[in-house]
Amino acid sequence: MSSTSRSRLVAAAATTVLAALSLTACNDGTGAQDEGGAGTSPSATVSHSPAPSAATDQSSSTDSTGSTGSTGSSAGTGSSAGSGSTGGAVASAKRTPVSKAPSSSGKPVTCEGSTVRTVAAPLTRPVNHMLLTVTNTGSKSCYLYGYPAVRFGEAQAVPPVIEASQPQAVVTLAPGESGYASVNLSATDGSGANGYTAKTLTVYFQGRSGNESVGKSAHPSLPAQGAYVDDALKVTYWQQSMDDAVTW
User: Fold this and answer.
1) Can you spell out the DSSP letters for 133-161?
2) Which residues fall within 8 angstroms of residue 202, CB to CB, at 6 or more apart?
3) I need a surface site. Which of 72, 115, 222, 242 has the fewest CB within 10 A?
4) pLDDT tens-digit profile of 27-83?
5) Closest CA to 152 of 126, 128, 182, 185
6) What is the pTM of this model?
7) Which residue from 139, 135, 159 is spatially nearest to 227, judged by alpha carbons?
8) How far is residue 160's CA from residue 235's CA, in Å, rounded to a whole number?
9) Taking the CB of residue 242, how many other CB atoms lie within 10 A of it?
10) Integer distance in angstroms from the first to the last C-alpha of the chain?
11) What SS3 state is found at 107?
């Protein structure tokens, strides 16, 4: 074999060895690590998604093929499903009926102490007057018949009613509504006799006939100094409005 042929053979052998070494380097651990580094770039993008902690956990468990991106998408879907579940609970709560105050049911009854709240308040105008306010606290409408039969302190007689104050119809109170009557406590010009200061007040309620009291009486509080009354004491009929009651 000539020297030229031997040189060509050696060169060909050297080229084959170098190619084999290059192929081995591409398949060793270093080559796989580099490829994996390129595959991890999608996980960096996922880490900036609305659910960063979930995306980070998913990226640490994925392989180097770039499947982290799809895993991050699954995490995002899970988050959306959770939000949907919470929204459903809120919608259910909103549909819960709200309890309301009892409405009137059944036939109306007669207003009396056990089904109403009675308040007595002095008035500055007209002077020497007191306003009685009766509020229906029951579940049925009630009728306020006639006028309040009031008793200040230990009085034995019921004061008269102002006949001109009689309304055209019986006062009817739905649950929660109020009726009114005013009390003329004493003469404004000082002409009243047998005056005294009362510390307690009892209010009796009339029935349909107007000749007797019905049910329980009411005991509204008076001012600390009491209420001064004299022979001029009188009351109005029950009124549907406060304005009508204080007219007299």
Assistant:
1) EEEE-SSS-EEEEEEEEEEETT--SPPPB
2) 150, 151, 217, 218, 219
3) 242
4) 444 443 333 333 433 333 333 334 434 333 343 333 434 444 444 444 444 444 444
5) 185
6) 0.58
7) 159
8) 7
9) 14
10) 147
11) coil
- The rounded distance, in Å, linking the Cα atoms of 42 and 75 is 14
DSSP string, 27-53: HSHHHHHHHHHHHTHHHHHHTTSS-HH
How is residue 154 written in tokens?
Answer: 């230990």
Supply the angle between the helices 29-39 and 3-27 in degrees, to the nearest 10: 50
Q: How many CB atoms lie within 10 A of CB 227?
A: 22
Q: Considering only CA atoms, give the Rg of the chain.
A: 48
Total Cβ atoms within 10 A of residue 43: 20
Instruction: Write the CB contacts of 149 (distance below 8 Å, at least 6 apart in sequence).
Output: 158, 203, 204, 205, 206, 213
Q: HSE on the CB side for 198, CA within 13 Å?
A: 23
CA 46 – CA 79 distance, rounded (Å):
14
Q: What is the pLDDT of residues 154-166, one digit of tens each?
A: 998 899 999 999 9
Domain-by-domain residue ranges, the chain?
3-94, 109-245
Tell me the mean pLDDT per 10 residues along the chain, length 248.
Answer: 48 45 42 39 38 39 40 41 38 37 73 97 94 97 97 93 96 98 94 94 94 93 96 97 94
8 Å CB contact between 219 and 198: no
CA distance 132 to 227: 13
Angle between helices 52-60 and 68-94 (to 10 degrees): 140
60's tokens: 């640490």
Give the C-alpha separation, 138 to 140, whole Å: 6
